[in-house]
Design goal:
Strand content: under 5%
Shape: rod-shaped
Number of domains: 1
Radius of gyration: 27 Å
Distance between the termini: 83 Å
Structural class: mainly alpha
Oligomer: single chain
Largest sheet: none
Order of helices and strands: HHHHHH
Helix content: over 70%
Length: 176
């Protein structure tokens, strides 16, 4: 497309190339922000799945332990109890991750009020919102998702170690 065709396109659409560029930038950065917010929610779901699984395992373990009359040696009881405590800690942390965390992912009402008060056109508004807010929102969402991912990793490690101790102690009971 040559320069004359571009000018014709601008006149037909009534939009400047700058406005189209700002819209594209807005769409791109909004997509990035949505990705980080989705990752944040996905981490919460992972924590929830781990907590549910560990809760089921603990329930089964306690039910089986209380219904059987097996004498468990003290050393195996300590191993199995340690595993149960770690699973319980994973459940508690998994449930703790479900608490509401606020992620600043968009303009506040006061920001929108300022934009409306200044009667900005779309081009000015997009330029203003791209330069004043999105970089902070993306950094904040990325940081919160990263924090939650670390927490979920800790929960998963507690769960794996707890399951290993619980299963190892349980499998050793018939041997002793």
């Amino acid at each position: 497309m040559d320069k004359q065709e571009q000018n014709i396109e601008v006149n037909i659409d009534g939009e400047s190339p700058r406005l189209r560029r700002l819209r594209r930038q807005h769409e791109d950065i909004r997509h990035t922000l949505d990705h980080h917010l989705g990752d944040f929610e996905e981490q919460a779901e992972r924590a929830n799945r781990i907590a549910r699984f560990d809760g089921i395992i603990l329930t089964i373990f306690v039910g089986l332990l209380s219904s059987t009359g097996v004498d468990i040696p003290l050393n195996l009881f300590v191993i199995m109890s340690s595993g149960a405590v770690l699973l319980l800690a994973a459940v508690i942390l998994g449930l703790w991750e479900q608490r509401g965390r606020e992620v600043d992912g968009g303009p506040k009402e006061s920001t929108i009020d300022v934009a409306n008060a200044h009667d900005m056109g779309e081009e000015k508004y997009l330029e203003w919102i791209l330069t004043t807010g999105y970089s902070d929102w993306v950094k904040n969402a990325r940081g919160k998702a990263g924090e939650r991912a670390k927490d979920v990793e800790t929960i998963a490690r507690l769960s794996i170690i707890g399951l290993t101790l619980l299963l190892g102690g349980t499998l050793l009971v018939p041997v002793v």
